[in-house]
Structure formats: structure tokens, C-alpha cells
């Protein structure tokens, strides 16, 4: 409790009952003790131990400072504790300050006073206080209970004990709230810094985006200008073309003819290149044939070869298929076959020509000469199977040379005449 007597009255002397000629009268006895009527007790009628919690709990310090300053006619310069003790000392008796605070408390807690007035006994008032002290308006319940006409000494003592413990709990809660407040303020500062950084980044990004948008808009404007210029140029060229077409009749037809001439010239150049390639190929073939003739002429004549040459059969326009052989001696094969009156056919045995084409060549041949050293196995078995199934004469030659072919043809002539040894043409 506050020691109001020790601190004394720090306010200026105000007109009160102490200034009357009769001097200060005796302090009125509390209503809870002197009478059991329905009149509420006033602030100055409360016991001294009740004034400290009433003024300290029911009147916030800023409000108390304003009301005291109004009564004193100036700004109260004392500290909070001195103001509190001075108000308690002045409220021990009826004074201007006590009446002012009485009016302020009645107006401030009018609702709580009306609720408390509904209870007509100390027991009912005590139950109401027990429930109200856990609510949100503890100051109003305190003022309404202590000033109630049915607040006896026992209830008053209970209320003062309860409010004393509530003040301790409120102080602890305020300290905990203060710690949480400090933590929240620190967190708020951290979040404020992060927010400032985020806003700075956002501002920078916004400026960059604005510059990018401005650049893109500039590019779009430039492209629109270029497109407009191109469209204008195209329109001018079209108009100029129409004027030229009007000035020169048949200009479009001439243009089409010029395009056709260009295509024909390109085709002619392509054909000329193909002709040149064919002429070069023909020249190579001619040179290869001359070399083959020279090689054939350089072979020394022997009595056996002369006899074989004389014994070559007369093929009489029969088709002779030569399967295999080197490309360089193919012209010699052709010369030998055509010398005997036959028609020369050739298949390389699958080296370059497809083996599937061999069946068609075999079907068109009357005589088959197979050079076994220069064909594939598939071609060899195709030749042998075809000749066996169709009864065609097949001569196998081991070495792919002109002399071997000549001896094979001579062997046919020495065994039987060409008319007897060869099948008649179909």
C-alpha cells in the first residue's frame, strides 16, 4: 500500500471542509459499517486501504494526471507515484479532488454500477464479484463492489485480497508481455529491413522491366516504321509494274517466255553435261576395247590354237550367255562369240549386276558358258540348276581368259557339229 501520510499532500491547499470556521470534522464512518441502507458509499467514505487499489486500478495514470491538472489549474509536475499518493491523501476526506474523481469513476463505470445494483445481498454481490474478476472489466467490478450498499467488511476484505493478487498477476503478465513486445519489436525491425530490401529489389526490377518495356516499345515502333516503309515501297513497285505493263503490252507474256527459256537453257546445260559424261565413258570403253584387241593380237599363234580356232562351231544366231569374267576381256568374249555367228549375252555373276537378273538372262540363252572362278556361289548354283532343269548345254571354264573360252568353244566343235550339239533356237 502507498504511505499517503508519509508523502503528505503535495497539492496546493484547496477550499475544503478543513478551511471552514469550524475546522475539519471527523472522517465519516464507512457505510458498510454504520448503516445498511441502499445508498452507495462515496470515494471518501471508503477505508484507507481501499483507496490505493481503487485509484491505482480504476483510474489510469494519464487520466488521473489530466484530472488533477484541471483541479489544480496547471500542469502537475510531480511523478506518477507522488500524484498517486497525493490523490489518496486528498480522497481520505471530502474535497474537490475527491468529488471530481467520484464523478469520473461513476461516469466511467456506469454499466458495472447498474449490473451490481441488481444484487440485493452480500452473498449475491460476492458471487457477482467472483465471476466479474475473471472478466474484461475488473476495474469497473472493483468500483461497483466496494461502493455497493451491501458490501460488508468480510466482502470488502475479500475484494481487497483478490485485487491485490490480481495486481501481482497483472504485473507478471505485463513483464511477460513486455518481453514478448521486445521480441516482436526486434522481429519487426528484422522484417522491416527485409521488407526494405525486398522493396528495393522490387523497385530495381520494376525499373529494369520499365526500361525493357520501353526498349521493346521502341523496337516495335521501329519495326512498324520499317513495315510501313516496306509496304509503301511495295505499293510503289506494284504501281510502277502496272505502268510498265500498260506501256508495254504483252510484258507478262514475255516474262513467262523468258522464264521458260531460262528453264530450257538449264535443261540444255544439264543434257550437255550428261552428253559429255557419256562421250567420256564411250571414249574409255573404246580405249579399253583397243587395248583388248592389241592384247589378243599379241598372243602368239600355236598349232593347237590354230586347230581350235578352225574347229570353232557355227552358232547360227544362237544366244550364248557368258557368266563371269573380267571386264577387260568382255570385248574379246564378244568378238569370239560373234565370230562364230552367235549373239553375245553377259552377266558378271553378281559382282555388280544383281543376281536376281541372272534368271532372265539364263532364260534368254541357248548356251551357257560359266567361268567358275569369277562368280558368286549363289550365281553358280543358279546356273547349274537352270541348265539341269531346262536341258541347256553348260560349259564350265576355270580360268577367266580368252584362250580358255576359245578352247571351250573348240571342244564343242570337235565332239559334234554345231547343228547336233546345240539346241535349235526357240
Helix content range: 55-70%
Strand content: under 5%
Ranges where pLDDT stays below 50 over 5 or more residues in a row are 12-35, 301-310, 416-426
Spatial strand order of the main sheet = 2-1-3-4
Q: Which descriptor suits the 3D outline? A: elongated
Q: What's the pLDDT, averaged over the residues?
A: 78
Over all CA atoms, what is the radius of gyration?
A: 68 Å
Task: Please outline the major beta sheet.
Answer: 4 strands, parallel
Order of helices and strands: HHHHHHHHHHHHEHEHEHEHH
**Total beta-strand segments:** 4
User: What structural category characterises the helix and strand content?
Assistant: mainly alpha
Termini separation = 149 Å
Quickly count the helices: 17
Counting structural domains, the number is 3
Which characteristics define this entry?
426 residues, 3 domains, Rossmann fold
Task: Explain what you see.
The chain has 426 residues and is mostly helical. It has three domains: 4-173, no CATH class; 262-297; 312-421, Rossmann fold (3-Layer(aba) Sandwich), CATH 3.40.50. The chain contains 17 helices and four strands. It has helices spanning 4-7, 31-34, 48-58, 61-72, 80-90, 96-108, 110-117, 122-132, 138-146, 153-247, 251-297, 303-310, 330-339, 358-364, 377-390, 402-415, 418-421; strands at residues 319-323, 343-347, 367-371, 393-397. The chain has a four-stranded parallel sheet, sandwiched between helices. Strand 3 (367-371), helix 15 and strand 4 form a beta-alpha-beta unit. Helix 3 packs across helix 5 (80-90), helix 8 runs antiparallel to helix 9 (138-146) and helix 12 (303-310) packs across helix 16. The radius of gyration is 68 Å and the shape is elongated. It starts with a helix and ends in a 5-residue tail after the last helix.
Amino acid at each position: 500500500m502507498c504511505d499517503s501520510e508519509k508523502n503528505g499532500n503535495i497539492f496546493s491547499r484547496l477550499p475544503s471542509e478543513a478551511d471552514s470556521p469550524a475546522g475539519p470534522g471527523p472522517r465519516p464512518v464507512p457505510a458498510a459499517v454504520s448503516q445498511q441502507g441502499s445508498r452507495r458509499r462515496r470515494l471518501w467514505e471508503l477505508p484507507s486501504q481501499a483507496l490505493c487499489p481503487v485509484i491505482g486500478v480504476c483510474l489510469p495514470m494519464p487520466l488521473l494526471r489530466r484530472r488533477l491538472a484541471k483541479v489544480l489549474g496547471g500542469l502537475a509536475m510531480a511523478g506518477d507515484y507522488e500524484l498517486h499518493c497525493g490523490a489518496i491523501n486528498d480522497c481520505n476526506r471530502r474535497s474537490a479532488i475527491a468529488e471530481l474523481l467520484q464523478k469520473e469513476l461513476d461516469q466511467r463505470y456506469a454499466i458495472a454500477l447498474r449490473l451490481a445494483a441488481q444484487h440485493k445481498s452480500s452473498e449475491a454481490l460476492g458471487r457477482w464479484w467472483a465471476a466479474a474478476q475473471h472478466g474484461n472489466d475488473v476495474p469497473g467490478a472493483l468500483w461497483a463492489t466496494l461502493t455497493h450498499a451491501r458490501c460488508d467488511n468480510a466482502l470488502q476484505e475479500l475484494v481487497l485480497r483478490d485485487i491485490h493478487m490480481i495486481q501481482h498477476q497483472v504485473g507478471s503478465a505485463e513483464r511477460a508481455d513486455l518481453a514478448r513486445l521486445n521480441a516482436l519489436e526486434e522481429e519487426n525491425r528484422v522484417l522491416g529491413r527485409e521488407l526494405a530490401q525486398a522493396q528495393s529489389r522490387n523497385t530495381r526490377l520494376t525499373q529494369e522491366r520499365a526500361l525493357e518495356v520501353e526498349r521493346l516499345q521502341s523496337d516495335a515502333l521501329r519495326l512498324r516504321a520499317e513495315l510501313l516503309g516496306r509496304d509503301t515501297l511495295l505499293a510503289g513497285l506494284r504501281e510502277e509494274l502496272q505502268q510498265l505493263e500498260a506501256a508495254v503490252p504483252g510484258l507478262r507474256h514475255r516474262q513467262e517466255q523468258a522464264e521458260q527459256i531460262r528453264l530450257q537453257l538449264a535443261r540444255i546445260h544439264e543434257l550437255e553435261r550428261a552428253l559429255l559424261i557419256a562421250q567420256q565413258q564411250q571414249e574409255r570403253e573404246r580405249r579399253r576395247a583397243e587395248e583388248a584387241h592389241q592384247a589378243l593380237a599379241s598372243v602368239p599363234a600355236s598349232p593347237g590354237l590354230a586347230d581350235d580356232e578352225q574347229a570353232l562351231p557355227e552358232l547360227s544366231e544362237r544366244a550364248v550367255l557368258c557368266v563371269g569374267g573380267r571386264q577387260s576381256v568382255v570385248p574379246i568374249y564378244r568378238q569370239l562369240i560373234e565370230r562364230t555367228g552367235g549373239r553375245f549375252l553377259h552377266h558378271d555373276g553378281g559382282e555388280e549386276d544383281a543376281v536376281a537378273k541372272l534368271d532372265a538372262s539364263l532364260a534368254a540363252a541357248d548356251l551357257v558358258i560359266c567361268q567358275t572362278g569369277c562368280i558368286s556361289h549363289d550365281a553358280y548354283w543358279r546356273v547349274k540348276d537352270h541348265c539341269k532343269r531346262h536341258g541347256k548345254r553348260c560349259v564350265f571354264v576355270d580360268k577367266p581368259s580368252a584362250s580358255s573360252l576359245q578352247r571351250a568353244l573348240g571342244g564343242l566343235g570337235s565332239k559334234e557339229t554345231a547343228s547336233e550339239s546345240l539346241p535349235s533356237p526357240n
